[in-house]
Amino acid sequence: MKVKFIGGAGTVTGSKTVIESNGVRILIDCGQFQGIKPLRELNWEPLPVLPSTIDYVLLTHGHLDHCGWLPRLVNQGFEGKIYCTSPTKDIAKLILLDSAKIQEEEAYKANEGKYSKHEKAEPLYDVAQAEKVFPHFRVVNENETINLDAEISAVFTNAGHILGACSIALTLEGKTLVFSGDIGRDDDVLMYPPTKPKKADYVFIESTYGNKMHPNEEVKFLLEAYINNAYSKGGTVIIPSFAVERAQTIMYLLWQLKEEGKIPNIPYIIDTPMGISVLEIFRNNKKWHKLSEEECVAMCAMFTMVSDYQDTINFIYNKKPKVVIAASGMITGGRVLSYLERYISLPETTVIIVGYQAEGTRGRKLLEGAPDIKIRGKYYDVKANIVEIEGLSAHGDRKDLLNWLSEIETKPKKVFIVHGENAPADELRIKINEKYGWDCSVPLMGQEFEL
Predict the structure, then answer these.
(1) Cβ–Cβ contacts within 10 Å for residue 131, how many?
(2) DSSP secondary-structure letter at 31?
(3) How far is CA 163 from the centre of its chain?
(4) Which residue numbers in the chain have pLDDT < 50?
(5) What pTM was computed for the model?
(6) Rounded Cα gap, residues 123 and 44, in angstroms
(7) Which site in 56, 184, 240, 449 is 20 to 30 Å from 3, CA atoms measured?
(8) Which of 258, 98, 92, 75 is nearest to 162 (CA)?
(9) Rounded CA gap, 341 and 331, in Å?
(10) For 330-351, what is each residue's pLDDT tens digit?
(11) What gap in Å lies between CA 446 and CA 4, rounded to an integer?
């Protein structure tokens, strides 16, 4: 049996791991690379294995860095099945369609504005290609054994990261390989704690925050303070947000603050069509989260839901204070760019960063104090107040990651540390070795191991 790391190694994006056993090829996740240009350019490269030779894709969850390359995979010859939970299927459909639309729009604007370095800008994939992925989906139930082949089976267990997110235990050749996917937090606002694995011969664990402990900060208090401070200056608050789970978490906290009378009576806007669609998925999958139907209805009533782009334009040019939640979470695309074009250079504006920002993204640059940012070929001076609330991350920190390993009954043969930049991955390696005495490896992109 062989494992080859063709994405999500040395980086937090582009998750792709190939398992090969007795002529069967299984791909764990099929993510899109995000962040710095050398990573983004990998999205255009062919896989080191022919897509037509891959038999199955097992999808841990529906975020773009885990499912966003599926249209390319299908377009290049993949004809197999894609296994995932029902919420993951619904979310992945939304994510892929949204990604395709954004890429089509960006290519169109680049060609129209003539700011592409290429003779003609092309989308990585279009809506039609994204839709060709959907017939390949096969829904699995949590904790149910799925037989993929005569001696190959998989079990999906709750990972707590977003709606439908799972870790996957893959059994083949008498060995159990456990893939963490993205692990949520033990004390998440909306999600239930992740299920800990009991048995694993090999573990593949994410390390996004492998070198960090989330601060013990009062998230609601910080939201209250930042909003009231911006309001006192007559400014607008912009919260770039991942449309899945993060937007809903922020909505829930803002609703609580409004009910408690702690934030002003101004427009609260959710301007992400995908985020609005995800609310319906929340309603249809109550067992996956803590939010009651009554809370969901009351929370939604507080917000102005914006789908039509003309409404986006109207809110952008309305100078009155407001709070806007808009995708994308790393400010790599989406409607948040339109708001920032107008507001990033105004000192009364506050931008609240609420999630992980990959290397090279606009969000990371803002956190690192960039004096200006480039949006659609033009530079904008950063005069807005840029703040971060780390306590809203949907990723477990180092303590959560170590705790997730705590119930494995016998020593694994090896732990592979993936889905992290070099420093977090290496620090998690050291901590796992110190705490459990297990053999750990931080694989490089393209590296192959025999198991």
Answers:
(1) 15
(2) P
(3) 11
(4) none
(5) 0.88
(6) 10
(7) 184
(8) 92
(9) 12
(10) 998 889 999 999 999 999 999 9
(11) 6
